[in-house]
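Deliverable D4.2, example record:
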Amino acid sequence: MDKTRVDDMLIEMITPKIKEIEEKFSQGKGLNSEDINTLLLKSQYNHINHLDQKLNEVVADVASLKGDFNGLENKFVGLENKFDLLNEKIEHTIQKALNKNMVQLIVILGAFATIFKMLDIFAK
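Output generated by the structure prediction step:
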């Protein structure tokens, strides 16, 4: 946790008073309103420090998640590119098969036309 100069100054300002209150309390003496307020101030300061620390952890976790999501996004982009290449290969293969079948059909139709024409000529 990074402390600021203001944080350090605040804790330094109340530390001597906290020590006095601890001694007073350990001797069984009662605490006045100012003592209680000083203890509450220290407690709140500690609570704020704890919340700051947790906030820093959350920020670090969010940054880590952001990196994880970026990595995942890159993987999806790579997968999308692979599917695009596969799709192009499939389209190319289908186009080649259609062209081959079309050529075969034209050759067969031409052969039949030739055979029927020859039969027609010989039948006359």
